[in-house]
Amino acid sequence: MDDCILVQKVIDDNDHKAFAELMEKYQRMVVTTCRGFVTSYHEAEDLAQDVFVELYESLPGFRKESKLSTWIYRIAVNKSLNHLRKKKRETSIFNLNLFNKGDGKETTFQIVSTDDTEADYSIVSSENKKLLKEAINKLPENQRVAIILSKYQDLSYKEIAEVMDVSVSSVESLLFRAKTNLRKYLVDYQKK
Amino acid sequence: MNCKDTNKFMLQFLDGELSAEKTSEIKEHLMDCSDCSTELNKVKQLYGLIEEEKNEFSHNPYLSSKVLNRIKDDKEQESILLRPIRYALIASLSTAAVFVGIVMGSFLSNINSSIAQSDSDESIELLADEYFPTSSNNIYDIQIDETENNK
């Protein structure tokens, strides 16, 4: 069924079946977008639930001038950024408590060898994913959003511009800077 | 192409976004420079994990029911939270209504009593006029006087 009809059913009749249909349709998109921001798949799925709850509450305010997917992307991006900000605040408070205990752990880059067993590969891969995420999250927010929408969702410059409400040339420049910075951070992590 | 430029466009090179000319220049440089080549392989390994993360997705058949349950719970929670506010609102509105009623009642009774007072004053005046008519203020008296003069 068309998105507009489903949205109208949710707004007019509080139709949960219609909303469930929307969730089924956009589940991959939301979970994968959130995955770009957070360190674990489980975390991304939890965030996706928050995104859909917010979507349900905000649907009456949805203007049909833009696409529903653009609206959902915006909610997913904002939820993810807020989640990370909250997590950062909590971590800094936690780190303050540990400041005198010297309990800080540091992850280092490891090269995955073809000789590694599957278990070794999984451990090394998850450690490296953590590093990748640290590098992505080190980027300024607008560069981060642009690169996540580009790499995790394969969105075009035009689509990213619509989600971020900026011009196409701004997206081009954001992506160029994001990639330059990301390479630098990835190299820095390897040297640690 | 030098090391600096190769590093600058490394991720664009990996994403295949560069022109054919620039791509071949970087490829040539990588063949000659072992440092850049090693760095590219390391970056490629980390950067390539994005593709791996993208493919992690597996459809969760329970996600929509979880979300719908949360929406229902939120609504119930909201109504529980709103209930005392609603009761307080009803109580304060009824108190206000009673107060307004009392004020209006006393105001109206004041008006009534003042009207009654002015009515009684007027009736006294009327009675006085009936019993002690003043000839100078009576227009009929003047008319009678004129007709008498004409005669």
Structural summary, described in words:
The complex is a heterodimer of chains A (192) and B (151). Chain A starts with a helix and ends with a helix. Chain A is globular and about 55 Å long. Chain A has 8 helices and no strands. Chain A has 192 residues and is mainly alpha-helical. Chain B is mainly alpha-helical. The chains are: A mainly alpha (192), B mainly alpha (151).
Shape-level CATH architecture of the largest domain in chain A: Orthogonal Bundle
Distance between the termini of chain B: 139 Å
Portion of residues in beta strands of chain A equals under 5%
- What is the typical, i.e. mean, pLDDT of chain A? 87
**Secondary structure category of chain B:** mainly alpha
Indicate the multimeric state. Answer: heterodimer
Instruction: Identify the overall geometry of chain B.
Output: rod-shaped
Mean pLDDT of chain B: 81
CATH class of the largest domain in chain A: Mainly Alpha
Radius of gyration of chain B equals: 51 Å
Main sheet makeup of chain B: none
Q: Any idea what the radius of gyration of chain A is?
A: 19 Å
What fraction, in percent, of the residue positions of chain A are helical? over 70%
Residue windows where pLDDT falls under 50 for at least 5 positions of chain A: none
User: Helical stretch count of chain B?
Assistant: 7
TL;DR?
The complex is a heterodimer of chains A (192) and B (151). With 192 residues, chain A is mostly helical.
Provide the fold topology.
The complex is a heterodimer of chains A (192) and B (151).
Chain A: H1 3-13, H2 16-37, H3 41-58, H4 68-98, H5 118-138, H6 141-151, H7 157-164, H8 168-191
Chain B: H1 3-8, H2 10-14, H3 20-32, H4 34-47, H5 49-54, H6 63-131, H7 139-150
Helix pairs in contact in B: 3-4
Salient structural properties:
heterodimer, A: 192 residues, mainly alpha, Rna Polymerase Sigma Factor, Chain: A, Arc Repressor Mutant, subunit A, 2 domains, 8 helices, globular, B: 151 residues, 7 helices, 83% helix, 0% strand, rod-shaped
